[in-house]
Write a structure and sequence with these properties.
The protein contains 14 helices and 15 strands. It is α/β, with parallel strands linked by helices and 403 residues long. It folds into two domains: 210 residues, Rossmann fold (3-Layer(aba) Sandwich), CATH 3.40.50.2000; 178 residues, Glycogen Phosphorylase B (Rossmann fold, 3-Layer(aba) Sandwich). Strand 6, helix 3 and strand 7 form a beta-alpha-beta unit.
């Protein structure tokens, strides 16, 4: 198949969606498929193609990524995609780049697959209820446009079906796993000296236990939970530090909140880093923490586990990650601040020898979480979309004035 993936962001932007697009591409190509990725960029004035990636001019935006594609009818993109001769359009976001995917699917008579990666209700944290309602009203329209124009819907979380029903739609969701590139994310490739160098650069003590989170800093990630735990339940003498990697709509608020809680000596914000640096960053830490209440896409936890980090994940039987965690084997599932703190402290007292054994066990618990397996599962979704596609159908949501 010739698959075109539409994602508003791609590496070096740190986001589950950006990582998902890259891992999926690698898996599909390993299965013999051809893949073209379409994304937006603030650093180009004209759409260009390089190594199978089309980068479209973007503008600053108040959406979850901080940017969006300028023109969904870009003539250069149309020419590039026409030459590629697509069989499947796979959309990973309901921002403008998603609308471009719908328009091109209509133009080239291709079935559409839409991946539900978040809930439109969780994208904003405006203290004004009126502003929040206005924003989410339009986000719901965009979300529903993607659902209405897709022949197949996929997600890595069963809860996606609930979000779709809340949006007023009844659609079947095909569950697919997340995965990671285990060759890139391998703690054995990062030397002890390199780990110390990274810690010192981030102003983290050599002997500290480091819990890390990486991803979009949005409301849905619930990073405030982590800050509150460090304030209420952990003391400086515990020698546990928190590293937060990434940026997003909550970035400024979280930094301000951290200052108010006087946690700057134990909480470190690395900001947005190139994705190529993440294997070394993760390998320099000890524990991965996930505090999202009901996030749908969890890519960074798979990368962390590939780097040998045990995971602390909030109890949620709908998450794919939940089924992967075995208490006291490769991580812990926690219910509240108390259990989170207990498990965090338990892991923090592991000696070097026991931690090395744990890293080996954690990494090898990812046997089925590779990009090839992920691609095989996605092939079934693509086939379903092709089977239900009728080229003469009139697709909805293409009026640019409505966006």
């Amino acid at each position: 198949m010739n698959v075109v993936i539409f994602t508003e962001v791609l590496s070096p932007y740190i986001s589950g969606i950006a990582t998902y697009a890259e891992v999926l591409r690698k898996g599909l190509e390993s299965r013999g498929h051809k893949v073209l990725t379409v994304t937006s960029s603030l650093h180009t004035t004209e759409a260009s193609i390089r190594r199978g990636v089309i980068r479209c001019p973007a503008k600053r935006s108040g959406n979850k990524f901080g940017c969006e594609c300028k023109d969904i009818n870009d003539v250069h993109v149309i020419r590039f995609v026409r030459k590629f001769e697509p069989d499947i359009i796979h959309i990973l976001t309901d921002t403008k780049i998603g609308y471009m995917g719908i328009a091109l699917a209509d133009r080239f008579h291709c079935p559409v697959v839409f991946s539900v990666t978040d809930n439109y209700l969780d994208r904003f944290s405006d203290r004004s209820k009126l502003i929040w309602k206005i924003k989410t009203f339009f986000e719901k329209i965009h979300f529903c446009d993607m659902l209405d124009n897709a022949q197949a819907i996929t997600s890595s979380n069963k809860r996606a079906a609930l979000f779709i029903r809340h949006a007023g739609r009844k659609r079947k969701v095909m569950l697919t796993p997340v995965a990671t590139d285990k060759k890139r994310f391998d703690y054995k490739k990062t030397s002890h000296a390199a780990k110390l160098k990274i810690r010192r650069k981030l102003d983290i003590p050599d002997a500290a236990t480091v819990a890390v989170f990486a991803g979009d800093l949005t409301v849905a990630k619930n990073i405030e939970f982590l800050l509150n735990v460090f304030k209420r339940r952990l003391r400086p003498e515990d020698n546990i530090h928190l590293l937060i990697v990434g940026g997003g709509t909550e970035s400024n608020y979280l930094r301000t909140h951290c200052n108010k809680l006087r946690l700057n000596d134990r909480v470190h914000f690395a900001g947005v880093l190139a994705h190529s640096l993440m294997p070394e960053i993760l390998s320099s830490c000890d524990i991965y923490v996930c505090s999202a209440d009901d996030g749908l896409l969890s890519m960074s936890f798979a990368e962390a586990m590939a780097c040998g980090l045990p995971v602390l994940v909030k109890e949620d039987k709908e998450k794919y990650v939940y089924s992967m965690i075995k208490n006291n084997v490769n991580g812990f599932v926690y219910k509240d601040e108390r259990s989170f703190t207990r498990y965090l402290k338990q892991l923090s007292v592991f000696g070097p020898e026991k931690m090395d054994k744990l890293k080996y066990i954690v990494r090898h618990s990812l046997n089925n979480m590779n990009c090839t397996y992920m691609a095989r599962c996605m092939e079934k979704v693509y086939q379903s979309a092709q089977d239900s596609y009728h080229p003469k159908e009139t697709l909805k949501g293409l009026d640019d004035d409505d966006y």
